[in-house]
Amino acid sequence: MDGMAKLAGKRSSASRPMPKRSMTHERLGRALAGGAVLISLLLGWLHHPVWLIGAALTSGNLILSAITDHCAVRSLLVRLGLPGERDVGRAEARGELESARPAAAGRRRLESRLAERAGRKIPAGLN
Known about the structure:
The protein is 63% helix and 0% strand. By secondary structure, the chain is mainly α. The chain has one domain (22-126).
């Protein structure tokens, strides 16, 4: 044990950093749905009851998504290149931190080519 660990009365290996969790389209979609319901309820309470229609539409979309397994917000987030839970787990298992989605890799290649044409250099870790 080192000196600081002795003073604290703990072993030095006991303090490990928490793993960084990546934002996935599942987590972001749930956060957007929850935020839409909360904002709609708040506006319905403070401003006008018509705003409660937004909460009803959001909950209807969640029910429809559960039945059909299709959600427009999820499709949009996937097209934007956000990884899914499986992709993040696969990347962590291989020791990678970047997205394993092909769309995100293609976007990174396109960005690096455009930057090269513009005359800017991209650091090696970013492309």
